[in-house]
Amino acid sequence: MRCDARRCVRVRSRVGAALLVPCMVALASLGAAAQTEAPARTAFKVCQDPNNLPFSNEAGQGIENKLAELFARDLGLPVAYYSFPQRMAFIRNTLRYKLPGEDYRCDIVMGVPAGFDQVSATQPYYRSTYAMVVPAGRGLDGLAKADDLLKLPRDKLSRLRIGVFDRSPASQWLAHHDLVEQGVPYPILNADPAQYPGEIIERDLAAGKIDVAIVWGPIAGYYAKRVTKPALRVLTMNSEQGVKFDYSMAMGVRYGEPEWKKQIEALIVKHRAAILAILQEYGVPLLDLEASPPKR
User: Fold this and answer.
1) Residue 112: its pLDDT value, please?
2) Lowest mean pLDDT across 24-38, 42-56, 187-201, 249-263
3) Which of the four, 22, 92, 190, 195, has the lowest number of CB atoms within 10 Å?
4) Domain boundaries, position 105
5) CA–CA separation, 254 and 108 (whole Å)
6) What pLDDT does residue 189 have?
7) Is 64 within a domain?
8) Are 111 and 137 members of one domain?
9) How many CB atoms lie within 10 A of CB 213?
10) Is 258 found in the same domain as 111?
11) Do 10 and 122 fall into the same domain?
12) Does residue 251 sit in the same domain as residue 228?
């Protein structure tokens, strides 16, 4: 999700279509895998985007970097990263990438939507929602919750510039409430490797180019804390008929590695409190996982 969770299935991990493999080859590969014991791991090898805060970056400053360090310490392994921008074919070029005679470059993606079918997804470890980021002192201080925006006088509402990522739940929400003309769209896929998801807040909202930003919760919480002038407030969005804002997030490993998946899920359970502390440190708006059971 450089930008949003709803399109994570196509964007957060930016995966392309799965390669079609002849059935006989697939069956042979599965048989060979079943007969061969996996070699001992020498590193906790993570597939990451090198410029995707608050999730990950090359300096190891993201949520997923901290989680990787936590798990690696428990396993007694060093962390090793294989970086690739999270655009199209991210999974194919990271988790599934293997040259003849070589090992896989990385073994786990630290953040995928629960049920994401391009990987073998673990149980979810957090659930969040989209949020509205509102600057102080610019005429919107009276908003106590996100829905209050819709109660503004129509003439005031019509003058607002609301930044959203295109084809996201936020853009759906604008259409649902007849606010398309107020929307300022940002591309959900950007070919520029220097682009990062927080620009909409840290650059344009802070500078007054837009009046409000509606983005995935972890992005909202993290960048709202980084901007001090003006002060920013994060108002969580509730899913409504036809617009889903809340999503559960998991980790992803390769299919055919059930023991590795079990090991990761055991770490998720074991370190539940530490994971929660990391998410809170980054300002992630958190919802109750139990209220939205994952699809298994």
Assistant:
1) 97
2) 24-38
3) 22
4) 6-126+246-291
5) 8
6) 76
7) yes
8) no
9) 29
10) yes
11) yes
12) no
CATH number of the domain that residue 96 is part of: 3.40.190.10
Residue 24, classed as helix, strand or coil, is: helix
Predicted TM-score of the model (pTM): 0.85
The count of domains in the chain is: 2
Query: Can you tell me the distance from the alpha carbon of 171 to that of 183, in angstroms, rounded to the nearest whole number?
Result: 7
Within a domain: residue 296?
Answer: no
Residues 130/4, Cβ–Cβ less than 8 Å: yes
Rounded CA-CA distance 91/14 in Å is 7
pLDDT of residue 10: 37
Torsion angle defined by CA atoms of residues 277, 13, 246 and 156, in that order, rounded to the nearest 10 degrees: 110
- For 6: left if phi > 0, alpha if psi spans -120 to 50, otherwise beta; the answer is alpha
Report residue 242's pLDDT band, with 50, 70 and 90 as the boundaries. very high
Among 218, 203, 234, CA closest to 127: 218
* Six token digits for residue 250: 């998991």
Question: What is the H or E stretch that residue 26 is in?
Answer: helix 23-35
Q: Are 127 and 248 in contact (CB under 8 A)?
A: yes
DSSP 140-199: -TT-SSGGGGGGS-HHHHTT--EEEETTSHHHHHHHHTT-GGGEEEE-SS-S-TT--TTH
**Paired sense of beta strands 44-48 and 108-113, if any:** parallel
* Residue 201 to residue 222: CA distance in whole angstroms: 10
Query: Among the three residues 191, 210, 236, which one is the final residue of a domain in this structure?
Result: 236
